[in-house]
């Protein structure tokens, strides 16, 4: 990995400090053109806490080429710890930009993940929005992530870009264990982005994003997210100077390893 870019380190996860535009124009599009392989992780606070709780997952994330800050909490935590991340770069935005680029330059994409209905609708919607897009293939995300038949199948379609939307950790594990079967490909874990592309789930309106309270919008829409948002709170508290010691003292800073 080139060292011309700065990084912010949070709980052992190394985030690249770069704008979305430079990330795509200077790093990803040239790699696409040269048919290089690349593994991109998009991580939010909940994701980082999960890596702390699962060393195998952390090792996979650390083996990736780039980790992007997909959450304002990551940007604030970097600031709190005297580091800098210029902007939030979300998986869903990067996916849309890559679809647009693929549409213009003739690259093929594979949609892996989400429920069958959402996966199918996402592929149809992509084709509607980007008529020249080459869809190498699609597959819903409900399979054993180590099933070799799935990775053999995806590899056989020779996609230039693989959007893995299997949910955090599952998608990174799938990429990690499958990449060797491919000769080329930009692999990116995009979480619930196919649900957004399909239209089944809507993103927060611009107001909520602008005021950095997209998380609150999602919590109101989906109260079952409360448990996840408590992880975000834990992450934020752990990065406020001085709080770490208090949290440790209260017994909050370590939780049991979580296996999926
Ligand atoms: N998903 C999937 N396979 C699974 C579990 C989940 O394809 O075995 C999909 C799910 O349908 C959704 C996306 O992964 O489209 C994100 O799921 P979730 O919100 O649970 O993920 P996270 O927010 O943890 O990344």
Automatic annotation (TrEMBL):
One Pfam family hit: Glyco_tran_WecG
Keyword Transferase: yes
Domain of life of the organism encoding this protein: Bacteria
Record keywords, A-Z: Glycosyltransferase, Transferase
PANTHER family: PTHR34136, UDP-N-ACETYL-D-MANNOSAMINURONIC ACID TRANSFERASE (PTHR34136:SF1)
NCBIfam families: wecG_tagA_cpsF
Annotated protein name in UniProt: WecB/TagA/CpsF family glycosyltransferase
Organism, scientific name: Corticicoccus populi
């Amino acid at each position: 990995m080139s060292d011309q870019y700065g990084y912010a380190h949070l709980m052992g996860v190394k985030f690249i400090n770069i704008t979305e535009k430079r990330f795509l124009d200077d790093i990803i599009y040239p790699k696409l053109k040269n048919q290089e392989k690349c593994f991109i992780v998009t991580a939010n606070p909940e994701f980082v806490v999960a890596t702390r709780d699962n060393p195998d997952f952390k090792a996979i994330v650390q083996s990736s080429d780039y980790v992007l800050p997909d959450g304002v909490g990551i940007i604030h935590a970097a600031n709190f710890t005297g580091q800098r991340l210029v902007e939030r770069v979300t998986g869903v935005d990067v996916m849309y930009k890559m679809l647009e680029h693929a549409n213009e330059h003739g690259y093929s994409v594979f949609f892996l993940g989400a429920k069958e209905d959402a996966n199918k609708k996402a592929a149809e919607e992509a084709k509607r929005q980007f008529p020249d897009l080459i869809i190498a293939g699609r597959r819903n995300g409900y399979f054993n992530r180590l099933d070799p038949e799935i990775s053999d199948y995806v590899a056989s379609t020779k996609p230039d870009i693989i959007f893995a939307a299997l949910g955090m950790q599952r998608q990174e594990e799938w990429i990690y264990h499958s990449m060797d079967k491919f000769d080329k490909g930009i692999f990116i874990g995009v979480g619930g982005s196919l649900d957004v592309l399909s239209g089944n789930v809507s993103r927060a309106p611009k107001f909520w994003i602008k005021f950095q309270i997209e998380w609150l919008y999602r919590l109101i829409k989906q109260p079952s997210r409360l448990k996840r948002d408590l992880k975000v709170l834990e992450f934020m508290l752990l990065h406020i100077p001085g709080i770490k010691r208090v949290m440790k003292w209260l017994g909050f800073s370590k939780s049991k390893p979580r296996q999926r």
